[in-house]
Automatic annotation (TrEMBL):
Family the entry assigns: Belongs to the class-I aminoacyl-tRNA synthetase family. Glutamate--tRNA ligase type 2 subfamily.
Protein name as it appears in the record: Glutamate--tRNA ligase
SUPFAM superfamilies: Nucleotidylyl transferase (SSF52374), Ribosomal protein L25-like (SSF50715)
Enzyme's top EC category: ligase
Substrates-to-products reaction catalysed: tRNA(Glu) + L-glutamate + ATP = L-glutamyl-tRNA(Glu) + AMP + diphosphate
Length: 578
Protein backbone atom coordinates (compact mmCIF):
# COMPACT_ATOMS: atom_id res chain seq x y z
CA UNK A 1 0.00 0.00 0.00
CA UNK A 2 2.84 2.40 0.89
CA UNK A 3 4.44 1.97 -2.53
CA UNK A 4 1.10 2.70 -4.23
CA UNK A 5 0.68 5.85 -2.12
CA UNK A 6 4.14 7.18 -2.96
CA UNK A 7 3.82 6.36 -6.65
CA UNK A 8 0.31 7.80 -6.79
CA UNK A 9 1.34 11.01 -5.07
CA UNK A 10 4.22 11.49 -7.50
CA UNK A 11 2.12 10.95 -10.63
CA UNK A 12 -0.81 12.99 -9.32
CA UNK A 13 1.53 15.93 -8.77
CA UNK A 14 3.21 15.52 -12.15
CA UNK A 15 -0.15 15.31 -13.91
CA UNK A 16 -1.46 18.32 -12.02
CA UNK A 17 1.60 20.43 -12.85
CA UNK A 18 1.28 19.44 -16.50
CA UNK A 19 -2.42 20.38 -16.69
CA UNK A 20 -2.62 23.67 -14.83
CA UNK A 21 -3.07 22.31 -11.31
CA UNK A 22 -5.73 19.63 -11.89
CA UNK A 23 -4.74 15.95 -11.99
CA UNK A 24 -6.93 13.46 -13.84
CA UNK A 25 -7.81 10.25 -11.96
CA UNK A 26 -7.76 8.05 -15.06
CA UNK A 27 -4.41 9.39 -16.26
CA UNK A 28 -2.82 9.04 -12.82
CA UNK A 29 -4.14 5.50 -12.43
CA UNK A 30 -2.71 4.55 -15.80
CA UNK A 31 0.73 5.89 -14.80
CA UNK A 32 0.63 3.99 -11.49
CA UNK A 33 -0.19 0.72 -13.28
CA UNK A 34 2.61 1.38 -15.73
CA UNK A 35 5.10 1.69 -12.87
CA UNK A 36 3.53 -0.99 -10.65
CA UNK A 37 1.99 -3.55 -13.05
CA UNK A 38 1.57 -6.04 -10.21
CA UNK A 39 -1.47 -4.10 -8.89
CA UNK A 40 -3.43 -4.33 -12.15
CA UNK A 41 -5.30 -7.47 -11.08
CA UNK A 42 -6.23 -5.98 -7.68
CA UNK A 43 -6.79 -2.38 -8.75
CA UNK A 44 -10.19 -2.22 -7.02
CA UNK A 45 -8.44 -2.48 -3.68
CA UNK A 46 -6.48 0.68 -4.40
CA UNK A 47 -8.79 2.87 -6.45
CA UNK A 48 -10.28 4.70 -3.46
CA UNK A 49 -6.80 5.48 -2.13
CA UNK A 50 -5.72 6.77 -5.55
CA UNK A 51 -8.86 8.90 -5.82
CA UNK A 52 -8.24 10.47 -2.39
CA UNK A 53 -4.63 11.26 -3.37
CA UNK A 54 -5.78 12.96 -6.60
CA UNK A 55 -8.38 14.99 -4.69
CA UNK A 56 -5.83 16.05 -2.09
CA UNK A 57 -3.28 17.09 -4.72
CA UNK A 58 -5.92 19.08 -6.62
CA UNK A 59 -6.61 21.14 -3.49
CA UNK A 60 -3.03 22.42 -3.49
CA UNK A 61 -2.15 25.65 -5.34
CA UNK A 62 -0.25 25.08 -8.58
CA UNK A 63 2.87 26.76 -7.21
CA UNK A 64 2.83 24.47 -4.17
CA UNK A 65 2.48 21.47 -6.47
CA UNK A 66 5.51 22.66 -8.43
CA UNK A 67 7.47 23.24 -5.23
CA UNK A 68 6.88 19.68 -4.01
CA UNK A 69 7.88 18.18 -7.37
CA UNK A 70 10.93 20.42 -7.51
CA UNK A 71 12.03 19.27 -4.04
CA UNK A 72 11.51 15.56 -4.59
CA UNK A 73 11.67 14.80 -8.31
CA UNK A 74 13.47 17.72 -10.00
CA UNK A 75 14.46 15.58 -12.96
CA UNK A 76 10.76 14.99 -13.72
CA UNK A 77 9.55 18.56 -13.41
CA UNK A 78 10.01 19.42 -17.06
CA UNK A 79 8.66 17.13 -19.68
CA UNK A 80 11.47 15.85 -21.86
CA UNK A 81 11.08 16.97 -25.42
CA UNK A 82 12.32 14.90 -28.31
CA UNK A 83 15.44 16.43 -29.76
CA UNK A 84 15.30 16.24 -33.53
CA UNK A 85 18.56 16.51 -35.37
CA UNK A 86 18.70 18.99 -38.17
CA UNK A 87 19.49 17.82 -41.66
CA UNK A 88 22.65 19.18 -43.22
CA UNK A 89 22.14 21.35 -46.31
CA UNK A 90 23.52 19.98 -49.60
CA UNK A 91 27.07 20.76 -50.66
CA UNK A 92 27.53 22.97 -53.73
CA UNK A 93 28.51 21.12 -56.92
CA UNK A 94 28.67 17.77 -55.14
CA UNK A 95 28.56 14.57 -57.18
CA UNK A 96 27.66 11.33 -55.42
CA UNK A 97 30.64 9.01 -55.22
CA UNK A 98 33.10 11.79 -56.08
CA UNK A 99 33.09 13.96 -52.98
CA UNK A 100 36.38 14.04 -51.05
CA UNK A 101 36.63 15.99 -47.78
CA UNK A 102 39.47 16.29 -45.30
CA UNK A 103 40.10 16.93 -41.64
CA UNK A 104 43.57 18.40 -41.16
CA UNK A 105 44.53 18.98 -37.52
CA UNK A 106 47.84 20.36 -36.34
CA UNK A 107 49.15 17.83 -33.79
CA UNK A 108 50.41 20.57 -31.50
CA UNK A 109 47.72 19.46 -29.03
CA UNK A 110 44.72 17.18 -28.92
CA UNK A 111 41.39 18.30 -30.41
CA UNK A 112 38.61 20.23 -28.67
CA UNK A 113 34.96 21.04 -29.26
CA UNK A 114 35.79 23.63 -31.92
CA UNK A 115 37.89 21.09 -33.87
CA UNK A 116 35.12 18.51 -33.59
CA UNK A 117 32.96 20.64 -35.86
CA UNK A 118 35.04 20.39 -39.07
CA UNK A 119 35.88 16.77 -38.25
CA UNK A 120 32.25 15.69 -37.97
CA UNK A 121 30.99 17.85 -40.83
CA UNK A 122 33.71 16.56 -43.15
CA UNK A 123 32.92 12.96 -42.20
CA UNK A 124 29.14 13.38 -42.41
CA UNK A 125 29.30 15.00 -45.83
CA UNK A 126 31.69 12.38 -47.18
CA UNK A 127 29.28 9.69 -45.95
CA UNK A 128 26.23 11.55 -47.28
CA UNK A 129 27.68 11.57 -50.80
CA UNK A 130 29.30 8.10 -50.57
CA UNK A 131 32.71 9.70 -50.90
CA UNK A 132 35.98 9.74 -48.94
CA UNK A 133 37.36 11.65 -45.98
CA UNK A 134 41.09 12.23 -45.63
CA UNK A 135 42.79 12.60 -42.23
CA UNK A 136 45.88 14.73 -42.65
CA UNK A 137 48.28 15.82 -39.91
CA UNK A 138 49.58 19.27 -40.77
CA UNK A 139 52.85 19.30 -38.86
CA UNK A 140 55.24 21.42 -40.92
CA UNK A 141 56.06 23.99 -38.23
CA UNK A 142 58.61 22.45 -35.84
CA UNK A 143 59.33 25.79 -34.15
CA UNK A 144 56.31 27.98 -33.32
CA UNK A 145 53.70 25.19 -33.43
CA UNK A 146 55.89 22.26 -32.57
CA UNK A 147 53.97 18.96 -32.75
CA UNK A 148 53.50 16.88 -29.61
CA UNK A 149 54.71 13.30 -30.29
CA UNK A 150 51.74 11.80 -28.43
CA UNK A 151 49.17 14.07 -30.10
CA UNK A 152 49.05 12.10 -33.35
CA UNK A 153 47.67 9.01 -31.64
CA UNK A 154 45.51 10.96 -29.18
CA UNK A 155 43.78 12.81 -32.02
CA UNK A 156 42.97 9.51 -33.73
CA UNK A 157 41.60 8.09 -30.48
CA UNK A 158 39.40 11.16 -29.99
CA UNK A 159 38.11 10.91 -33.57
CA UNK A 160 37.30 7.23 -33.09
CA UNK A 161 35.37 8.06 -29.92
CA UNK A 162 33.59 10.81 -31.83
CA UNK A 163 32.52 8.23 -34.41
CA UNK A 164 34.60 9.68 -37.27
CA UNK A 165 36.00 7.20 -39.81
CA UNK A 166 38.57 8.23 -42.39
CA UNK A 167 39.51 6.57 -45.67
CA UNK A 168 43.14 7.73 -45.90
CA UNK A 169 45.73 9.07 -43.49
CA UNK A 170 48.73 11.30 -44.18
CA UNK A 171 51.47 13.04 -42.19
CA UNK A 172 52.77 16.11 -44.01
CA UNK A 173 56.24 15.99 -42.46
CA UNK A 174 56.74 12.70 -44.29
CA UNK A 175 55.92 14.40 -47.61
CA UNK A 176 58.55 17.16 -47.60
CA UNK A 177 60.42 15.97 -50.76
CA UNK A 178 57.10 16.05 -52.63
CA UNK A 179 56.58 19.69 -51.60
CA UNK A 180 60.07 20.51 -52.87
CA UNK A 181 59.19 19.08 -56.29
CA UNK A 182 56.03 21.17 -56.51
CA UNK A 183 57.98 24.26 -55.43
CA UNK A 184 60.46 23.76 -58.26
CA UNK A 185 57.61 23.42 -60.78
CA UNK A 186 56.00 26.56 -59.38
CA UNK A 187 59.27 28.49 -59.76
CA UNK A 188 59.66 27.16 -63.32
CA UNK A 189 56.18 28.46 -64.12
CA UNK A 190 57.17 31.90 -62.84
CA UNK A 191 54.80 31.68 -59.89
CA UNK A 192 57.35 31.88 -57.07
CA UNK A 193 60.76 33.30 -56.23
CA UNK A 194 63.47 33.25 -53.56
CA UNK A 195 63.47 36.45 -51.50
CA UNK A 196 66.62 37.39 -49.57
CA UNK A 197 65.36 40.73 -48.25
CA UNK A 198 65.26 41.18 -44.52
CA UNK A 199 61.83 41.09 -42.89
CA UNK A 200 61.66 44.85 -42.30
CA UNK A 201 62.88 45.57 -45.83
CA UNK A 202 60.26 43.34 -47.43
CA UNK A 203 57.47 44.82 -45.30
CA UNK A 204 58.42 48.26 -46.59
CA UNK A 205 58.18 47.05 -50.22
CA UNK A 206 54.90 45.31 -49.47
CA UNK A 207 53.40 48.35 -47.79
CA UNK A 208 54.10 50.40 -50.91
CA UNK A 209 52.73 47.67 -53.16
CA UNK A 210 56.06 47.29 -54.95
CA UNK A 211 58.11 44.24 -55.91
CA UNK A 212 61.23 43.38 -53.95
CA UNK A 213 64.50 43.30 -55.98
CA UNK A 214 64.56 39.48 -56.15
CA UNK A 215 61.04 39.03 -57.57
CA UNK A 216 61.88 39.31 -61.26
CA UNK A 217 65.21 37.51 -61.42
CA UNK A 218 65.38 34.80 -64.15
CA UNK A 219 63.89 31.38 -63.42
CA UNK A 220 67.32 29.74 -63.60
CA UNK A 221 68.62 32.06 -60.88
CA UNK A 222 65.55 31.36 -58.71
CA UNK A 223 66.03 27.59 -59.00
CA UNK A 224 69.69 27.95 -58.11
CA UNK A 225 68.80 29.99 -55.04
CA UNK A 226 66.22 27.41 -53.99
CA UNK A 227 68.84 24.64 -54.27
CA UNK A 228 71.14 26.74 -52.08
CA UNK A 229 68.37 26.97 -49.49
CA UNK A 230 67.99 23.19 -49.53
CA UNK A 231 71.73 22.63 -49.20
CA UNK A 232 71.94 24.74 -46.03
CA UNK A 233 73.72 27.70 -47.60
CA UNK A 234 71.34 30.13 -45.87
CA UNK A 235 70.41 30.32 -42.21
CA UNK A 236 67.13 31.15 -40.53
CA UNK A 237 65.65 34.41 -41.80
CA UNK A 238 68.17 34.79 -44.63
CA UNK A 239 65.93 33.51 -47.45
CA UNK A 240 62.31 32.51 -48.05
CA UNK A 241 60.28 31.34 -51.05
CA UNK A 242 57.34 33.57 -51.91
CA UNK A 243 54.31 32.95 -54.12
CA UNK A 244 53.64 35.78 -56.56
CA UNK A 245 50.28 37.46 -56.01
CA UNK A 246 48.69 40.86 -56.63
CA UNK A 247 51.03 43.45 -55.12
CA UNK A 248 48.09 45.86 -54.84
CA UNK A 249 45.82 43.40 -53.01
CA UNK A 250 43.83 45.19 -50.26
CA UNK A 251 44.95 42.61 -47.70
CA UNK A 252 48.71 43.15 -47.26
CA UNK A 253 49.15 39.61 -45.88
CA UNK A 254 48.10 38.23 -49.28
CA UNK A 255 50.82 40.12 -51.15
CA UNK A 256 53.55 37.63 -52.13
CA UNK A 257 52.98 35.33 -49.17
CA UNK A 258 55.70 33.00 -47.86
CA UNK A 259 55.61 29.41 -49.12
CA UNK A 260 58.87 28.10 -47.56
CA UNK A 261 61.11 29.29 -44.74
CA UNK A 262 64.28 28.00 -43.10
CA UNK A 263 64.03 26.48 -39.62
CA UNK A 264 67.10 25.28 -37.74
CA UNK A 265 65.91 21.84 -36.66
CA UNK A 266 69.15 21.21 -34.77
CA UNK A 267 67.62 23.57 -32.17
CA UNK A 268 63.99 22.45 -32.55
CA UNK A 269 64.01 18.91 -33.99
CA UNK A 270 60.78 17.60 -35.44
CA UNK A 271 59.25 14.67 -33.49
CA UNK A 272 58.71 12.64 -36.69
CA UNK A 273 61.64 13.49 -38.99
CA UNK A 274 64.10 14.96 -36.52
CA UNK A 275 66.77 17.20 -38.12
CA UNK A 276 66.37 15.80 -41.64
CA UNK A 277 65.03 19.04 -43.17
CA UNK A 278 65.76 22.73 -42.68
CA UNK A 279 63.47 24.14 -45.41
CA UNK A 280 59.83 23.82 -44.38
CA UNK A 281 56.62 24.62 -46.26
CA UNK A 282 54.18 27.01 -44.62
CA UNK A 283 50.62 26.01 -43.83
CA UNK A 284 49.18 27.61 -46.97
CA UNK A 285 51.63 25.93 -49.33
CA UNK A 286 51.46 22.45 -47.78
CA UNK A 287 47.66 22.52 -47.32
CA UNK A 288 47.07 23.94 -50.79
CA UNK A 289 49.30 21.38 -52.51
CA UNK A 290 47.93 18.42 -50.55
CA UNK A 291 44.31 19.38 -51.16
CA UNK A 292 45.05 19.13 -54.87
CA UNK A 293 47.16 15.97 -54.77
CA UNK A 294 44.67 14.17 -52.53
CA UNK A 295 41.75 15.08 -54.76
CA UNK A 296 39.87 17.10 -52.14
CA UNK A 297 36.67 18.45 -53.69
CA UNK A 298 35.14 20.24 -50.68
CA UNK A 299 36.88 22.04 -47.83
CA UNK A 300 34.87 22.76 -44.66
CA UNK A 301 36.71 25.08 -42.30
CA UNK A 302 36.30 28.09 -40.03
CA UNK A 303 35.87 31.56 -41.50
CA UNK A 304 39.21 32.59 -40.01
CA UNK A 305 40.69 30.76 -43.01
CA UNK A 306 39.03 33.04 -45.57
CA UNK A 307 42.30 34.89 -46.24
CA UNK A 308 44.09 31.55 -46.58
CA UNK A 309 41.63 30.57 -49.29
CA UNK A 310 42.50 33.78 -51.13
CA UNK A 311 46.22 33.06 -50.83
CA UNK A 312 45.96 29.45 -51.95
CA UNK A 313 43.97 30.36 -55.05
CA UNK A 314 47.03 32.23 -56.38
CA UNK A 315 49.02 29.00 -56.04
CA UNK A 316 46.30 27.09 -57.88
CA UNK A 317 46.14 29.65 -60.66
CA UNK A 318 49.91 29.44 -61.22
CA UNK A 319 49.79 25.63 -61.34
CA UNK A 320 46.64 25.46 -63.48
CA UNK A 321 44.69 23.57 -60.84
CA UNK A 322 40.96 23.80 -59.99
CA UNK A 323 40.39 25.04 -56.44
CA UNK A 324 38.03 22.94 -54.26
CA UNK A 325 34.60 24.16 -53.21
CA UNK A 326 35.12 25.89 -49.86
CA UNK A 327 32.59 26.42 -47.06
CA UNK A 328 33.62 28.76 -44.25
CA UNK A 329 31.61 28.54 -41.03
CA UNK A 330 31.69 30.57 -37.83
CA UNK A 331 33.63 29.87 -34.69
CA UNK A 332 32.08 27.47 -32.17
CA UNK A 333 32.84 28.26 -28.52
CA UNK A 334 31.72 26.89 -25.17
CA UNK A 335 31.10 29.47 -22.44
CA UNK A 336 33.21 29.06 -19.34
CA UNK A 337 35.51 26.44 -20.90
CA UNK A 338 38.96 27.05 -22.40
CA UNK A 339 39.20 26.02 -26.06
CA UNK A 340 42.39 27.85 -27.03
CA UNK A 341 45.25 25.37 -27.48
CA UNK A 342 47.87 27.97 -26.56
CA UNK A 343 46.02 28.85 -23.34
CA UNK A 344 45.66 25.17 -22.48
CA UNK A 345 49.39 24.57 -22.92
CA UNK A 346 50.16 27.62 -20.78
CA UNK A 347 47.83 26.42 -18.03
CA UNK A 348 49.50 23.01 -18.00
CA UNK A 349 52.90 24.61 -17.48
CA UNK A 350 51.82 27.25 -14.95
CA UNK A 351 48.86 25.80 -13.04
CA UNK A 352 49.47 22.09 -12.89
CA UNK A 353 46.42 21.33 -14.98
CA UNK A 354 46.41 17.75 -16.24
CA UNK A 355 47.35 17.65 -19.92
CA UNK A 356 44.75 16.83 -22.57
CA UNK A 357 41.97 15.22 -20.51
CA UNK A 358 41.58 17.53 -17.53
CA UNK A 359 37.79 17.92 -16.99
CA UNK A 360 38.19 21.71 -16.78
CA UNK A 361 39.31 21.85 -20.41
CA UNK A 362 37.17 21.87 -23.53
CA UNK A 363 39.12 19.04 -25.16
CA UNK A 364 37.12 16.05 -26.32
CA UNK A 365 38.89 13.87 -23.77
CA UNK A 366 38.15 16.44 -21.04
CA UNK A 367 34.47 16.63 -21.94
CA UNK A 368 34.32 12.84 -22.15
CA UNK A 369 35.69 12.54 -18.61
CA UNK A 370 32.90 14.84 -17.44
CA UNK A 371 30.31 12.45 -18.82
CA UNK A 372 29.45 14.44 -21.95
CA UNK A 373 28.43 11.97 -24.64
CA UNK A 374 29.42 12.02 -28.27
CA UNK A 375 25.71 12.03 -29.17
CA UNK A 376 25.43 15.33 -27.33
CA UNK A 377 28.24 16.81 -29.43
CA UNK A 378 26.64 15.41 -32.60
CA UNK A 379 23.39 17.23 -31.83
CA UNK A 380 25.14 20.52 -31.08
CA UNK A 381 27.21 20.41 -34.26
CA UNK A 382 24.25 19.29 -36.38
CA UNK A 383 22.29 22.19 -34.92
CA UNK A 384 24.88 24.89 -35.66
CA UNK A 385 25.66 23.27 -39.02
CA UNK A 386 27.67 25.30 -41.51
CA UNK A 387 26.30 28.74 -40.69
CA UNK A 388 28.87 31.52 -41.19
CA UNK A 389 27.99 33.26 -37.92
CA UNK A 390 29.80 32.45 -34.68
CA UNK A 391 27.99 30.13 -32.28
CA UNK A 392 28.47 30.34 -28.52
CA UNK A 393 27.13 27.38 -26.57
CA UNK A 394 26.54 27.74 -22.85
CA UNK A 395 27.45 24.81 -20.65
CA UNK A 396 23.84 24.88 -19.43
CA UNK A 397 22.59 24.24 -22.96
CA UNK A 398 25.14 21.48 -23.48
CA UNK A 399 24.05 19.95 -20.17
CA UNK A 400 20.38 20.08 -21.14
CA UNK A 401 21.07 18.12 -24.33
CA UNK A 402 23.33 15.65 -22.55
CA UNK A 403 20.78 15.16 -19.77
CA UNK A 404 18.15 13.97 -22.26
CA UNK A 405 20.63 11.40 -23.58
CA UNK A 406 21.98 10.01 -20.29
CA UNK A 407 18.84 10.22 -18.15
CA UNK A 408 17.19 7.05 -19.53
CA UNK A 409 20.30 4.93 -18.90
CA UNK A 410 21.85 6.45 -15.77
CA UNK A 411 21.22 4.38 -12.63
CA UNK A 412 20.24 6.35 -9.52
CA UNK A 413 22.15 6.26 -6.25
CA UNK A 414 21.77 7.92 -2.89
CA UNK A 415 24.79 9.83 -1.59
CA UNK A 416 25.18 12.28 1.28
CA UNK A 417 27.50 15.23 1.76
CA UNK A 418 28.71 16.34 5.21
CA UNK A 419 27.16 13.19 6.70
CA UNK A 420 25.54 12.98 10.12
CA UNK A 421 24.96 9.62 11.79
CA UNK A 422 21.33 8.92 12.61
CA UNK A 423 20.26 6.00 14.82
CA UNK A 424 16.73 4.89 13.97
CA UNK A 425 15.16 3.51 17.16
CA UNK A 426 12.33 0.98 17.54
CA UNK A 427 12.05 0.24 13.83
CA UNK A 428 9.79 -2.81 13.25
CA UNK A 429 11.72 -5.83 11.98
CA UNK A 430 9.56 -6.24 8.91
CA UNK A 431 10.20 -2.74 7.51
CA UNK A 432 12.08 -2.69 4.23
CA UNK A 433 13.26 0.33 2.33
CA UNK A 434 12.32 0.16 -1.34
CA UNK A 435 14.31 2.42 -3.67
CA UNK A 436 13.84 2.62 -7.47
CA UNK A 437 16.90 1.90 -9.61
CA UNK A 438 15.45 4.37 -12.10
CA UNK A 439 12.12 6.25 -12.04
CA UNK A 440 11.04 4.92 -15.44
CA UNK A 441 12.02 1.30 -14.75
CA UNK A 442 9.98 -1.16 -12.78
CA UNK A 443 12.92 -2.39 -10.72
CA UNK A 444 13.67 -1.65 -7.08
CA UNK A 445 16.30 -2.58 -4.57
CA UNK A 446 15.54 -3.06 -0.90
CA UNK A 447 17.25 -2.59 2.45
CA UNK A 448 16.05 -4.27 5.67
CA UNK A 449 16.58 -1.77 8.47
CA UNK A 450 16.24 -3.75 11.73
CA UNK A 451 15.46 -2.60 15.27
CA UNK A 452 18.26 -0.02 15.57
CA UNK A 453 19.37 0.83 12.07
CA UNK A 454 22.22 3.29 11.62
CA UNK A 455 22.07 5.54 8.58
CA UNK A 456 23.78 8.72 7.41
CA UNK A 457 22.05 11.79 6.04
CA UNK A 458 23.35 15.16 4.89
CA UNK A 459 23.53 17.65 7.74
CA UNK A 460 21.61 20.22 5.68
CA UNK A 461 18.66 17.83 5.37
CA UNK A 462 18.05 17.29 9.07
CA UNK A 463 15.34 19.52 10.57
CA UNK A 464 16.92 22.31 12.56
CA UNK A 465 13.78 23.34 14.41
CA UNK A 466 10.05 22.72 14.65
CA UNK A 467 8.61 19.26 15.24
CA UNK A 468 11.83 17.46 14.23
CA UNK A 469 10.10 15.44 11.53
CA UNK A 470 11.75 14.26 8.32
CA UNK A 471 11.05 11.57 5.72
CA UNK A 472 13.60 9.02 4.55
CA UNK A 473 13.23 8.10 0.88
CA UNK A 474 11.45 4.78 0.47
CA UNK A 475 11.05 4.17 4.23
CA UNK A 476 8.81 6.49 6.20
CA UNK A 477 8.58 9.52 8.47
CA UNK A 478 10.87 9.89 11.48
CA UNK A 479 11.07 12.30 14.39
CA UNK A 480 14.30 13.44 16.03
CA UNK A 481 14.42 12.34 19.69
CA UNK A 482 17.88 13.46 20.65
CA UNK A 483 21.33 14.63 19.56
CA UNK A 484 24.79 14.27 21.09
CA UNK A 485 28.49 14.37 20.27
CA UNK A 486 30.40 11.10 20.06
CA UNK A 487 34.13 11.46 19.58
CA UNK A 488 33.51 15.05 18.52
CA UNK A 489 31.01 14.09 15.85
CA UNK A 490 27.24 14.69 15.97
CA UNK A 491 24.97 11.67 16.42
CA UNK A 492 21.20 12.01 16.11
CA UNK A 493 18.55 9.57 17.35
CA UNK A 494 15.13 9.34 15.76
CA UNK A 495 12.09 7.10 16.03
CA UNK A 496 9.59 6.01 13.41
CA UNK A 497 6.68 8.43 13.43
CA UNK A 498 4.58 7.05 10.57
CA UNK A 499 4.93 5.50 7.14
CA UNK A 500 2.09 7.19 5.26
CA UNK A 501 2.87 9.61 2.45
CA UNK A 502 -0.18 11.62 3.52
CA UNK A 503 1.47 12.31 6.87
CA UNK A 504 4.57 13.61 5.09
CA UNK A 505 2.43 15.89 2.95
CA UNK A 506 0.48 17.05 5.96
CA UNK A 507 3.67 18.29 7.61
CA UNK A 508 5.30 19.43 4.36
CA UNK A 509 8.25 17.07 4.80
CA UNK A 510 11.01 16.93 2.22
CA UNK A 511 12.00 13.45 1.12
CA UNK A 512 15.68 13.09 1.94
CA UNK A 513 18.24 10.54 0.83
CA UNK A 514 20.31 8.44 3.15
CA UNK A 515 22.99 5.75 3.22
CA UNK A 516 22.88 2.69 5.48
CA UNK A 517 25.89 2.34 7.76
CA UNK A 518 26.84 -1.18 6.65
CA UNK A 519 26.19 -0.35 2.96
CA UNK A 520 28.28 2.81 2.66
CA UNK A 521 31.46 3.61 0.77
CA UNK A 522 33.43 6.85 0.37
CA UNK A 523 32.84 8.47 -3.01
CA UNK A 524 35.25 11.20 -4.10
CA UNK A 525 33.41 13.62 -6.36
CA UNK A 526 35.50 15.96 -8.54
CA UNK A 527 33.57 19.09 -9.51
CA UNK A 528 34.96 21.38 -12.25
CA UNK A 529 34.12 25.00 -11.43
CA UNK A 530 35.69 27.23 -14.05
CA UNK A 531 39.41 26.72 -13.60
CA UNK A 532 38.97 25.21 -10.12
CA UNK A 533 38.60 21.51 -9.46
CA UNK A 534 36.68 21.07 -6.22
CA UNK A 535 37.06 17.74 -4.43
CA UNK A 536 34.28 16.51 -2.15
CA UNK A 537 34.08 13.23 -0.29
CA UNK A 538 30.55 11.83 -0.02
CA UNK A 539 29.13 8.70 1.53
CA UNK A 540 27.41 6.69 -1.18
CA UNK A 541 25.63 3.39 -1.47
CA UNK A 542 27.98 0.43 -1.75
CA UNK A 543 26.11 -0.96 -4.74
CA UNK A 544 27.77 1.79 -6.80
CA UNK A 545 30.79 -0.54 -6.91
CA UNK A 546 28.85 -2.61 -9.44
CA UNK A 547 29.10 0.17 -12.02
CA UNK A 548 31.69 0.06 -14.78
CA UNK A 549 34.35 2.73 -15.04
CA UNK A 550 33.16 5.28 -17.60
CA UNK A 551 29.46 4.81 -16.90
CA UNK A 552 27.27 7.82 -16.14
CA UNK A 553 25.13 7.72 -13.00
CA UNK A 554 22.80 10.11 -11.22
CA UNK A 555 23.24 10.97 -7.57
CA UNK A 556 19.85 11.90 -6.13
CA UNK A 557 19.52 15.68 -5.65
CA UNK A 558 23.18 16.18 -6.61
CA UNK A 559 23.32 15.50 -10.33
CA UNK A 560 24.85 13.33 -13.02
CA UNK A 561 28.43 12.12 -12.75
CA UNK A 562 30.78 9.83 -14.64
CA UNK A 563 32.49 7.00 -12.81
CA UNK A 564 36.24 7.60 -13.04
CA UNK A 565 37.59 4.80 -10.84
CA UNK A 566 36.18 1.84 -8.96
CA UNK A 567 38.33 0.53 -6.12
CA UNK A 568 37.62 -2.39 -3.80
CA UNK A 569 35.79 -0.30 -1.22
CA UNK A 570 35.61 3.21 -2.70
CA UNK A 571 35.02 5.07 -5.95
CA UNK A 572 35.86 8.31 -7.75
CA UNK A 573 33.44 10.20 -10.01
CA UNK A 574 33.53 13.44 -11.97
CA UNK A 575 30.51 15.72 -11.78
CA UNK A 576 28.86 16.35 -15.15
CA UNK A 577 25.81 18.53 -14.53
CA UNK A 578 22.56 18.62 -12.59
Amino acid sequence: MEKVRETGFKHALLNAVKYNGKADLKAVTSKIIGELPEIRSVLREYIDVIRSIVEEVNKLPLEKQREIVRSNWPELLEEKKEVREKELPPLPNAVEGAVVTRFAPNPDYTIHLGNARPALLSYWYASMYKGRMVLRFEDTDPRTKSPYPEAYQMIKQDLEWLGVKWSEEYVQSLRIPLFYEVAKKLIEKGGAYVDKCGEKEFKAWRKEGKACPHRDLPVEAQLEEFDKMLSGHYGEGEAVVRVKTDLQHPDPSVRDWVAFRIIDTSKTPHPVVGERYIVWPTYNFAAGVDDHLMGVTHILRAKEHVSNTVKQKYLYDHMGWKYPETIHFGRLSLEGVILSKSKMRKMIKESGVEAYSDPRLGTLSGLRRRGITRECLWRIIKDVGIKPVDAKISYANLSAINRVIVDPVANRYMAVEDPVQVILEDVPEDIEASIPVHPSRKTYYTYRLGREAVVYVSSKDLPGSGNGLFRLMGVGNFQVTGASLVNGKPVVTARLHSRDQEEARKHGLQIIQWVKDDEKIPLELLIPEGMRLVRKTLLAEKRILGEKEGSVIQLYRIGFARIERIWEESAVAIYAHD
